[in-house]
Design goal:
434 Repressor (Amino-terminal Domain); Beta-Lactamase; 2 domains; five-stranded antiparallel β-sheet; 46% helix
Length: 270
Amino acid sequence: MAQREELTRFLKAVRGRISPIDAGLPAGERRRAKGLRREEVATLSGMSVTWYTWFEQGRDVKLSAPMLERLGRTLRLNAHEREFLFALAQHRPPPLSQVGEQAILPSTQHLMDSLSIPALVILDDWTVVGWNWLVGRTFRNYEGLAASDRNLFKILTLQERYQQDPTRYRDMVKHLTARFKWDYSRTANPAGFDVLIAEMLERSEVFRECWSESEIVGHSEDIHTVDVPEVGDITFHNTSYAIEASPGQRLILFAPMDEVSAQKLASIKP
């Protein structure tokens, strides 16, 4: 089935499940079919009847992103249906939602709790919103910290424990800032980033230098060693993954780099 045919089927199906009363319209006369008529969908979405009719029929007409957003609201599409509409109509994902998910899904927490390695979840501005117990034992305990104090970028850039070796510290901040710039370019909440950036420009000379540079990194991995109390040095390889069900969230996993590190990590108990 061609995608245009699927778009037609989809639009007919979703408008067919919405009654006039649900859409704020008078019930009117008896209808041969349930749901909204094409002209009603067009009017409620702020477009011409002809244009919407052609669009639903699968003709080669293109609707702008704002028009698709209005159509999605009229048809009461959920997040997955909205993405489906944009994929069929424009062959691309929809614009990012203005507010990302602030809380992690229970399934994400369950996944992290099931792992034998440290794992945490951050928002696009690097605020930590979830973690497993191993993070508290190997890195830091986020329990009870305010959101502003749980920002991983601020922690890594500002805390003195990471500044003992000036050369390594600057290399780290340069790498982190290059990724931070990438996340800033993609966020749906630039105002929140702007506040954080202003604070960092004021508080960190190294950040000011790195922020003025042009380097940008779209995906980052790193290897670093952590001195864990009562255990000793553990070397981790960390990488991150987008959480498909929660746009704006990223899962970071810390895997031991060698057998010695793996054995030390396994010796840590809750």
